[in-house]
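Feature request, filed as a ticket because there's no other form

It would be nice if the structure record came with a short human-readable summary line next to the tokens. Right now we just get the raw output. Example of a typical job, pasted below so the devs can see what we mean:
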Amino acid sequence: MEKTADVSSDENRSSPAGGRGHEGEPHRQGELGSRLNWLRAGVLGANDGVVSTAGLVVGVAGAAATSAELLTAGLAGLLAGSMSMATGEYVSVSTQRDSELAALDQERRELAHTPEAELEELTGLYMAKGLTRDLAREVAVQLTEHDALAAHAETELGIDPEELTNPWHAAGASFVAFTVGALLPLLAIVLPPASVRVAVTVAAVIGALVVTGWVSARLGSARVGPAVGRNVLGGAIAMAITYAAGVLLHAAR
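Raw output as currently delivered:
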């Protein structure tokens, strides 16, 4: 029993935070969080593809369009939506990356010109996390000696200098996610017979929205019921409005 207690004590002393985790665990948690964020963004992108394309093709179907016209409208909506999503994501992430690079450059300058002030700042940040001043100072010194920029970037800015956001990856992921989502209502509207194509599309879209709502809720640790309900209701309202608009436009010809 004494040997076990000694080992536990040694492990606690070896961790700057008092034994709150094994070496490398925060990095693994950060990678997991990043992957979950990408997955959540992919699910939401697919959800957008489902809803926007479904609204478009159901509205066109309400105007008594032919299968060829539906396919043309659906493909146009798919390409326009996926390109819009990709472009928007590229611009957004590029802006974020520029901000991260600017913050890192500022941190490099401060480390080069006022290293002692930066060390004191890092000490204060660890004290704010609950460490005593002596321990916070020791942690700050050791991390500064190992990699001063990384220590300040991660603790002060919440940035990992080795894993900056990539706008091309974000744009590609958004394009693919939207396209995959949009294909479902597009195929559902053009493949069945004309007499049932709207009903088949609505059923397929509702099913897809249940799945994306469930997945997004699980990824965000939220309640599944309300998330699915909101998702399905929003998609159903979108399809109802566009279908009604299509019917009215057809009647007004």
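Something like this underneath would help us a lot:
Residues 5 and 11 are 10 Å apart (CA to CA).
The helical segments are 2-14, 25-62, 67-113, 115-128, 133-157, 167-190, 197-219, 224-251.
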